[in-house]
């Protein structure tokens, strides 16, 4: 059985990095170093969105909270020069997505397959809500100081009302653009 792999030189003075799909594991080899990542532990599969006419792609694989792999479609060959390996990268990315989707536990608790890049409105709104909640808490603490009770409570009430409005909007925002792991678009991963 032939093994499926993709390789790229990431930095000038280190050996080429080779990623191999070995059954249900993704194996990363750089020189003598070898790391194995079980695809059943994959939590996120993010494919970069290409710019107009650009052949550069990148795949980010997140395993749990500790390990993140970045696989580029181009290999460094010299200062300002890159070798295009998009065809092999596309085949490898499609295989990793298919195997990871097949190994995912039933019930939708598997990895997220998404398109990276662009503005993520939901994440930005969540940060704004967190900072607004922190500001509300600080104003409520200021209400205990002499002479500030009326102003602090009035401002905290207005900020809490705004926080409630933002929480009401949050369920209607999309969770990002999802990808079907068994049918990745040809425009993102061209075969030739």
Summarize the structure.
The chain is α+β, with helices and mostly antiparallel strands and 192 residues long.
DSSP summary: helix tally? 3
Q: Which structural class do you get from the secondary structure elements? A: alpha+beta
**What's the domain count?**
2
| Helix-strand topology string | EEEEEEEEEHEHH
Rounded mean pLDDT score: 83
| Stretches with pLDDT under 50, minimum 5 residues | none
Helix content: 25-40%
What does this structure look like?
The structure is a single chain. This protein has helices spanning 86-103, 121-142, 149-169, and strands at residues 4-8, 17-22, 25-30, 33-38, 42-48, 58-63, 67-72, 74-78, 81-84, 112-116. By secondary structure, it is an alpha+beta fold. The chain has two domains: 4-116, Roll (PH-domain like), CATH 2.30.29; 121-172, no CATH class. The longest helix is centred in the last third of the chain and has 22 residues, at 121-142. The radius of gyration is 23 Å and the shape is elongated. The relative contact order is 0.14.
Which structural traits does this protein have?
192 residues; PH-domain like; 3 helices; 2 domains; four-stranded antiparallel beta sheet; elongated; single chain; alpha+beta; four-stranded mixed beta sheet
Question: What secondary-structure arrangement, pairings included, does this model have?
Answer:
Layout: E1 4-8, E2 17-22, E3 25-30, E4 33-38, E5 42-48, E6 58-63, E7 67-72, E8 74-78, E9 81-84, H1 86-103, E10 112-116, H2 121-142, H3 149-169
Helix pairs in contact: 2-3
């Amino acid at each position: 059985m032939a093994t499926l792999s993709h390789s790229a030189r990431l930095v000038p003075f280190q050996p080429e990095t080779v990623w191999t799909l070995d059954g249900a594991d993704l194996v990363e080899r750089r020189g003598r170093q070898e790391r194995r990542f079980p695809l059943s532990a994959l939590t996120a599969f993010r494919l970069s969105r290409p710019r107009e006419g650009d052949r550069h792609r990148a795949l980010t694989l997140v395993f749990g909270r500790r390990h993140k792999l970045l696989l580029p479609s181009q290999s460094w060959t010299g200062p300002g020069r890159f070798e295009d390996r998009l065809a092999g990268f596309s085949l490898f990315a499609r295989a990793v997505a298919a195997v990871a989707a097949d190994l995912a536990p039933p019930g939708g608790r598997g990895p997220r397959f998404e398109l990276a890049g662009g503005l993520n409105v939901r994440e930005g709104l969540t940060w704004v809500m967190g900072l607004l909640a922190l500001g509300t808490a600080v104003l409520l603490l200021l209400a205990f100081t002499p002479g500030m009770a009326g102003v602090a409570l009035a401002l905290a009430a207005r900020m809490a009302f705004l926080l409630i409005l933002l929480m009401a909007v949050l369920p209607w925002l999309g969770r990002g653009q999802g990808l079907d792991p068994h049918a990745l678009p040809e425009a993102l991963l061209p075969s030739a």
